[in-house]
Amino acid sequence: MPFSTKATLVNFVGDIENYPCHAILKVGDTLFFDGGEIKGKTCPDMMAPLANAMFTVYMTGPRFVPPANYNLFWYSCNSKLDPSKKAYDGYGWDPINYKFETPPYHVACLQDPKAFQWPPSEAYSAIKDYTLMCPDTRSGALFKIDAFDLAWGGHALPYSRRQIVIMDRVAKTGGAWPVQKIMDLYSEFEVNEIYPPLSDAIIEMMIEELRLLDWATIENGEITVTQKGIDRVARFKDEIPAEDVKALNL
User: Fold this and answer.
1) Kindly report the CA angle at 26 between 66 and 104, in degrees rounded to 5?
2) Is 223 helix (H, G, I), strand (E, B) or coil?
3) What is the pLDDT at residue 121?
4) Between 108 and 165, residue with greater pLDDT
5) Which domains are delineated in the chain?
6) Would you call 166 exposed, middle or buried from its count of C-beta atoms within 10 A (0-12, 13-18, 19+)?
7) For the CA atoms of 145, 149, 151, 152, what is the dihedral angle to 10 degrees?
8) The pLDDT of residue 109
């Protein structure tokens, strides 16, 4: 089911000495959304864009990458016009094969520092993080949006509990377990009489989300719970009442 998300102020790319943040935010300040509540500190100017971005990551988790990441333009170097080269590229661009030194607070500081590299980047790295900038570009507060857990609020809770139990059941088998046989680890009551009832489609989707959080690996049609997944199960058992642990057979 969807993911708990956070928006973290990771940097001020502007001049906060002369143009301080009037919301008195600082690097490291974080806003959280667990599917049911938003908690933390932010600025009214950023509330709407952050809420929209956090909802996107709430639904998609680590799968989401801003579409600009795939634009070839970011992976090219800087350039200048040279009409003598028009016959080659149709316009006449001359590659600048050295790295620019950008002055502090220059407008170029608003770009992803992994874009327009020299030598060219070997991987899809530019615009990979989902970031938003405050509209006050004088200070340029930069927020990064991440999925860091399953969602435990709102209507996501029953699904997240199901995912925890999947990890617990698989871990107790002592190793990998075929994805297509996960329902064999449950009684008929546990499959059909607990919401949401288990199906191949729901199991496939829930396992994919466990993989995205590095709580499980999927290989050759089998799921293996990682140490991170085992640790999350243990923490969950400490977070819920003893009667719930017993009911879930954890």
Assistant:
1) 70
2) strand
3) 86
4) 165
5) 3-66+129-150 (no CATH), 68-110 (no CATH), 154-247 (1.10.10.10)
6) buried
7) -130
8) 81
Task: Residue 206: count other Cβ atoms within 10 Å of its Cβ.
Answer: 22
The interaxial angle of helices 227-239 and 157-172, nearest 10 deg, is 120
- What DSSP string describes 155-214? GGHHHHHHHHHHHHHHHHTTS-EEGGGGGGGS-HHHHHSSSSPP-HHHHHHHHHHHHHTT
Residue in 109, 115, 119 with CA at minimum distance from that of residue 73: 115
* pLDDT category of residue 54 using cuts at 50, 70 and 90: very high
Q: Is residue 143 packed enough to be buried (19+ CB in 10 Å), middle (13-18) or exposed (0-12)?
A: buried
Could you tell me the two tokens for 36? 């049911």
Q: Model's pTM, two decimal places?
A: 0.89
Question: Is the pLDDT score of 248 beyond 90?
Answer: yes
